Amino acid sequence: MVVWDSELDMRHRPFSTVCQAAPSVIITGGGAAGLTAAYFAALQGAEVTVLERTREAGKKILISGGARCNVLPMEVDVQRDFVTESSPSALRAIFASWSLEDCKHWLEDNIGLALATEQENMKYFPASNSSREVRDRLVAACTSRGVRILCKASVEGLSRQPGGGWRCSLADGSHHDADSIVVATGGLSFPKMGTDGTGHRIVGALGHSLKPVYPALTPLKGRHPAGSQLAGLSLYDVDLQCSAAAAAAKGKKKGQRAQRSAFLFTHRGYSGPSVLDLSHSVTRALERGTPLPRLSANWLGDSRADWDARLAAGPGSSSVPSLLRKHGVPQRLAEALCAEAGVSDRRVAELRKTERAALLESLTEYPLDYDGHEGYAKAEVTGGGIPLSEVDCSTMESRVLPGVHLCGEILDVFGRIGGFNFYWAWLTGRLAGMHAVRSVDQ
Questions:
Q1: For the stretch 19-29, what's the b/e string if a residue is b when 16 or more beta carbons lie within 10 angstroms of its beta carbon?
Q2: Domains in the chain, start-ordered, CATH in brackets?
């Protein structure tokens, strides 16, 4: 077990024990990554100020996981669970700095958050099932270590000071100076929470490049089977796959597969964990005007051979919709699929060869039509952002702006649903906060 209050050895002792004046660190953004950065910067003796543009810190934490707040996954495969257009080796280097188990101990032992497992979904939640407790304990851990949190303080610009250090210019015309800065302003998802891409614009104006951003983990818009209105219908064993446009054009249907199997028909299209696992491939293509990938659904996860055998076994006198319902296809979906295949009034024994083939295709490789997405208003996170090549992955310090550290959603990384984005926030916030202090020392 790691006890973080005692992790500082003689090489990395608090700066205040080396110099008379403690270094000052400003954190721009009071979300999960920003508060974590504030905690670890304060832990090393820095004078830490969090500038949060909204009325309270951690607003996005409060709405996470349906207000239950899934704070961590129970296991991680970096290549499978995270998306980046940056170097995979750079991503792995960041994750090598802090294990999932050590992060869990920090939440429990230092933040004081009792955790409970949701074994079937491999997730950690607060035992209280309260996202407010997560936010409040994180804020309390920071303030108990002397962190100042200033709300309604919207940072609109950064400038390097002639004598060293950085100045944060606020929307109200005031400013705050510090030896080093941590930019934790988030992306563009959930704009009602105060996220509008300000951090991207600020560091972009100072020389950083940007992988074009797009809404990730957001529902898709599209037509339901047969044009039916299936809103509210949920399925729990869907095998959803996404094939790149080039592969789909060549008839190659295998591709990226959703990690989860729950699927929801919405009033305007599709959602649920399986859709959110793959929707970034669609939204990225739609936003950038690149060839669109193919999405296909196997509604129950059963093979084409399984369904072929069921149709062969009959009974032949059964209507096709009733046979589908018998084997688990919900009634509204069964009727829609049969209508689209033109077999709504057919008995099983009457199916022509072409109709049978079309029905099997609809059951096991149904092409999901989509024509848009729900955007940042419903996106869990932002895709794209500052490439990892422009930060030191051992410290999160900008290679373009020395003394500025970047963490959280502003970077070109996001995880799938299931606590992975919180893990990214805790992980990068810790690195940025610790090294914001150490960079002043150096």
A1: eeebbbbbbbb
A2: 22-214+385-441 (3.50.50.60), 220-373 (no CATH)
